[in-house]
Amino acid sequence: MGKSAVLATLLEVDDDRIIRVSPTPGETTHCHVLPVVFDERELVRFIDTPGFSRPLEAMRAIQELHGEGSPDLGTVGRFVRERGEAFDDEARLLEPIVEGAGILYVIDPGKPLRDAFVAEMEILRWTGRPRMALLNQKGEEAPHLEEWRNRLGSYFNLIRTFNAHHARFEERKHLMRALLDIDESNRPMLEEAIGLIEEEWAERREEAADVILDMLRKALALRVEGRLDEEQRHSERKRERLVKDLTRRYVEKVRRIEGRSYERLLKIYRHHLMTVEDDAPAYEGIDLEAAETWKKWGLSRGQMTVAASVAGAAGGALVDVGTGGLTHGIGTVVGAVGGAAAAFFKGADLPELGVDPRRGMKISSGSGRTLVIGPPRNVNFPWILLDSALHHYLAISRRAHGKREETVIAGRGGESVVRGWPPGRRAAFAKWFGGCLKGTPDPHREQTAFDELVRALEEAERADPAMRSAPAGEP
Q1: Are residues 79 and 163 part of one domain?
Q2: pTM tops 0.85
Q3: Which of 116, 288, 297, 340 has the fewest CB atoms inside 10 Å of its own CB, making it the most exposed?
Q4: 3-class DSSP state for residue 404?
Q5: Is 346 inside a domain boundary?
Q6: Pair (171, 207) in one structural domain
Q7: Mean local confidence (pLDDT), 396-421
Q8: Any idea what the CATH number is for the domain that residue 84 is in?
Q9: pLDDT band at residue 353, thresholds of 50, 70 and 90?
């Protein structure tokens, strides 16, 4: 009743060649050993076994072998050896238990408690092994949940609830910790495994933060250029055609940068059944959907003003340092005022996402003329990219591996995440973005942005999915 899906989610395996997950009961016909290995050392071993096929008959056969009284582990072992050919599935699933394995019994509380299930639980109780019952509640409706709960206490040492299709890392970790409560004999090894799993998850979070920052750095530094020949210089129509072609190339390159980053995130979190939607309209300034995207994602106008004020102040502070402080802070004041004003007026034109040839390009001179495009001048552009990355990160890191349907992550869905960030975190990113846009990211500021991003990812992982972001209208 979902035991393969539970193991697939717990061990992060979405490959049916390793763990076969199917809505049809009885798909598991052989025992599959699934070890948890660190540094080539096996710490925990899970065994995905077949389910019971004839539990009532098997229960009676065990009772016959034992005679009077309640059967025990020895009798169950005899049943496996002497009646195994007649009860193939039961023998396969009971053999690891006879050899010393603990029991994780997975239940679908949407099904009524039948006599066959009672027989299964009775047989498992006779083994005397550590036993946990896991209620794999797949949806809101579980009409027989209380009926199951009232009976499980008689047969199991511990009862837990788990949703194999929606469990996130914290829930998987809690399930592993629950194993400590039923099996004291293996506590040191289980505790070591749990500690290593936590460490590895933290490492993956940091690796994901590196991927996101790398994507932002490359996208914000991106420029696309083309040569202006003599004819194009004197023909507005031909110049516009060149601008359009360069803009298309710029958008395609940004999308490729994003796409490669999301592929890396999918690999970090071991997903093979997820793909990322190609979201070209989000970059087109005249597209109505793009206009909606810019209203919902990135910073609000008030937040952009504050962020740009901080970034502008940082630029002014550099002037003070360069002059030995002789301006007595005037550069800081001017920089802050200029940054805030620019952000307010640029942010007022939110739908203009595409590269505007009047504001998003420059003509460089030299032996010839070159048209350079990118990035968009709109101060919200880096925040849109960051919001998109956070949206994809959450979708990827929260995806349960027990799901077997292929999933496409929508490009620009949901509300803004960065609008809910504390001001100090937004300020740190605003300063780093400034250097990235100039093609000279500051290593110290990048480290600060990295630390803030790791904290943000951890907070987002633990938050309720319904509470990812601030409302779109937050100032």
Answers
A1: yes
A2: no
A3: 288
A4: coil
A5: yes
A6: no
A7: 74
A8: 3.40.50.300
A9: very low
